[in-house]
Amino acid sequence: MSRSNLDLVNECDGFPYYQVDPDLFAASISTYYELRVQNRDYALGYLLPSVAEVFRGIPHWHIDDDERILTLTEGTDAASRSAAVQTTFLALRTTGHFKVLDKWRDELYPVYGRQKELLFNVERSASPLLGVVTYGVHLTAYVVKDGEMKIWIPRRARTKQTYGGMLDNAVAGGIASGESAFECLVRECGEEASLPEDLVRSRVKTAGCVTYFYIRDERAGGETRLLQPECQYVYDLELTEDVIPKPGDEEVEEFCLWTVDEVKAAMAKGEFKPNCAIVMLDFFIRHGVLTAESEKDYIEIVARVHRRFEFPTL
Amino acid sequence: MSRSNLDLVNECDGFPYYQVDPDLFAASISTYYELRVQNRDYALGYLLPSVAEVFRGIPHWHIDDDERILTLTEGTDAASRSAAVQTTFLALRTTGHFKVLDKWRDELYPVYGRQKELLFNVERSASPLLGVVTYGVHLTAYVVKDGEMKIWIPRRARTKQTYGGMLDNAVAGGIASGESAFECLVRECGEEASLPEDLVRSRVKTAGCVTYFYIRDERAGGETRLLQPECQYVYDLELTEDVIPKPGDEEVEEFCLWTVDEVKAAMAKGEFKPNCAIVMLDFFIRHGVLTAESEKDYIEIVARVHRRFEFPTL
Predict the structure, then answer these.
(1) CA-CA distances (angstroms) from residue A44 to A26, A100, A110, A312, B32?
(2) CB of A189 within 8 A of CB of B272?
(3) Residues in domain Nudix hydrolase (chains A, B) (predicted)?
(4) Fewer CB atoms inside 10 A, N or C side of chain B?
């Protein structure tokens, strides 16, 4: 069945909004636990009760069932909190409590407080368990010839455990703690699309960010229903015809140069990884492919792909 | 005192967010009345109690003080509802109840329901009394020479009653009921900047929309604290050096061609009309002038200028 662009947004930004449906929001919220750190009286993320339950009795953590709050009680600075978090997840990995930890990445993601201070780092594969905001970069590479735009679209390897065989953005990757968005982008452009560093540095355009509140399904691998609020910095790169992106690793099967209509058709068939479809929608809006006249849900789509989170962000 | 870009956003998007501060939101909300129409159980806007009070006893309206809801009870279709609304505001204009009605425009703004159906039209000057979403177009015109961008910035006539002497976007205007965003833009480009229609139609780029929830102050004229949720469709127009925008009416004093740094400096000094500063921020984000590395409040700014409203939009 054909998906509308708003369907694609709903698939990626699935967490309810208070201002649109207070009852649904309240019903959802009441099933989760808030994640906090000691001496900060605000939420950093939401956890499933089944996840929060596992922290009961683990040193460094306190669970308040009445208020539904899980608090990291250990540590007074980023280093000591990070150490406690790492100890916890290394142990939980060993005990096999969570399937998502089977894909341990040995890569740290940052979690920030309201003053934009780093509160702690957490192993990447563990971040959806805590429901904290994570950060990444997505690049759309395109060619304009005789006034017609074509877009480079990679297909993910069918053997990939997460979203195997689905369509992606030209380059995408997570930003590790301490890395800047732009340097992450330059690195990923080399690794994922074999794009020369000097070309990227001189030609790429920073174009904003998309933010959405994703609820993980089976395609993400591991536990489902985990909450994943994400911020993806978006970049555009107009390439000349002689530059051909090439997969730099096993993660991408092939790059295809598609017309806008071909991309739209694949989106409507649900062939894109959900957050990559959102990045394409943002690109289409910024480049006038989608307009107020051509897209019936224009205003809602623009607002939804730039969600304001209840959690602090960088 | 110098304003940060987030200060500029706060000035324009001043209504609280539930998800960030539920208590502040609840305190604000509890002071307003919801606007509804018969047989639609959702809000179309918020009214000040002092405004809602005036509707007490006026035919076609029902005020529920317990639930704090003002309902338009007359009419079963857009035509009959619009007639009732018009009758009401013509009378209130005559009685001199509201200062904002002194600037009667004889121009109708549309109010939509959740199915994007037109519920009624309302005289433009009356729309902030009802607190309904209004729609407009804003154009940023710029020139790129030797790799440096310069932006055409008009200064509003100092004699103008609203935001007199402040800086504006190259072209801006409200979309009347029945008019498309793009046709409105083309018309305003001619009226406000004397830009040739064929140039606009062939060169202008549709680039999204900004949405924000403005609380009117004395600079807007008339009653203060009125609520004004707005959607501005944004457009970019790159001009060659030989095209000079010229004021088409008395509303603009002059157009200046400024460097990005000059524009930023004027923004920091608070010289821009609040919603025009927001449009400039969105332009700067889309064009890579503001980046994740250079703007400390990047993510919040991007989300805030694309607010999702609790009211239906087109």
Answers:
(1) 18, 20, 11, 7, 31
(2) no
(3) 134-280
(4) N
What domains does chain B contain, in order, with CATH numbers?
5-13+134-304 (3.90.79.10), 32-128 (3.30.750.160)
Structure tokens at A65: 């069932």
Can you give the length of chain A in residues? 314
What's the pLDDT at B20? 86
Q: Cα angle vertex B114, ends B112, B119, to 5°?
A: 30
CB contact under 8 A, A207 and B233: no
Residue of A nearest to B296 (CA): A314
Distance, in Å, from the CA atom of B232 to the CA atom of B177, rounded to the nearest integer, reads 15
Burial (CB < 10 A; 0-12, 13-18, 19+), residue A188, is: buried
Inspect the interface and report whether the beta carbons of B292 and A181 lie closer than 8 Å. yes
Which residues of B fall within a CB distance of 8 Å from A207?
Answer: 285-288
Flag if A293 and B180 touch (Cβ within 8 Å): yes
Q: What is the mean pLDDT of residues B146-162?
A: 94
ipTM beyond 0.85? yes
Amino acid at B290: L
Residues of A in contact with B19 (CB under 8 A): 17-18, 308-310
- Nearest residue to A274 via CA among A214, A208, A209: A214
Which candidate, A229, A111, A114, places its Cα nearest to that of A177?
A111
SS3 A119: strand
- Could A313 and B299 be called an inter-chain contact, meaning their C-beta atoms sit closer than 8 Å? yes
Q: How many H helices and E strands in chain B?
A: 10, 12
Pairing of strands B33-37, B69-72: parallel
Percentage of residues of chain B with pLDDT beyond 70: 100
Q: pLDDT value at position B161?
A: 83
Residue B21: per-residue pLDDT? 87
Listed by number, the residues of chain A in 152-191 with a beta carbon closer than 8 Å to a beta carbon of chain B are 180-182
Nearest-10 crossing angle of helices A274-286, A5-12: 130
DSSP per-residue string spanning A156-187: E-TT-TTTTT-B--SEEEEPPTT--HHHHHHH
| CA angle, residues B123, B185, B104, in degrees to nearest 5 | 20
Contact partners, residue B272, CB within 8 Å, separation at least 6: B8, B166, B167, B168, B266, B280
The amino acid present at A113, given as its one-letter code, is G
Query: What's the pLDDT tens digit per position in A213-228?
Result: 999 999 999 999 999 9
Task: Assess contact for B170 and B190: CB atoms under 8 A.
Answer: no
What is the Cβ-side half-sphere exposure of residue A275, based on CA atoms within 13 angstroms?
A: 31
